[in-house]
Amino acid sequence: MRGRTGKKWRQVAALGAMTLGMSMLLTLLHAACASWRLEMKRAPEQPFDAIIVPGCPSKQDGSLSACQARRAMWVTVLWERGYTRHFITSGAAVASPFVEAYALAAAMVLLGVPAERIYLEPHALHTDENVYNALQIARMQRWTRLAIASDRGQAVPACEMLEDWHRQCGAFTLDYELVKARLASAADKLQAVRLAKEADFVPLKEREAQRARLCGRSPRPPSFLLYPWMLLRKGLGRPPWQPFAPPSVSLVTWDSYLRRQGGGAGTTGAQLE
Asked: pTM here?
């Protein structure tokens, strides 16, 4: 009897391992196909209306993290090349008490992007919310040609998410060697960025629970479960996931934000404390 039970469990384990292996293989194949289809390998025929720049956490003293510096420099390169007319920086105060969208905008202006060309989305806690919330800003502006610029592991998957709600996207994956070379001469300038802490900062898990209660929804699944599930829904032709989003959209540029904070028209926002 024990022998039969042991054999049965070995068969179940083997089937589970095979299923997991097939799932991983299909995921890798899907990622390769998505990268080939969405990644911008050459200059666009015409500038995008806007490039969405997902955020990442600041350092605990409010200075730029290496991730933020990379992304700010990369999109500055895209601006210099004339690849877009506007940017939407996206990200709340998620893992540190500093708004990620503001950090990116401050760095981009220091590097040469006009403050009035940068729109702010300071509510997103996760990549799906970065994309969805930024899309609402684009829709209000009647922008249709959209792209995403970020590190390689985020830009293409985020672009796939945008296609769920918009059916169009281009992914500008970060050129690490170029960005590293450019940052070597801009490090001192970017060290000037210091953001003020959010007075009402709430840790991520608590913020997620608050949002779920306010929306009358179940808590958001962890990203490692949600994102494969979003791909599965797309493959089955099901309606796309609806991210948690603010009830209304505000059109605020980095320039108008600084004016409200008391900064002059030419203020870079490097010091906001």
From this structure: 0.86
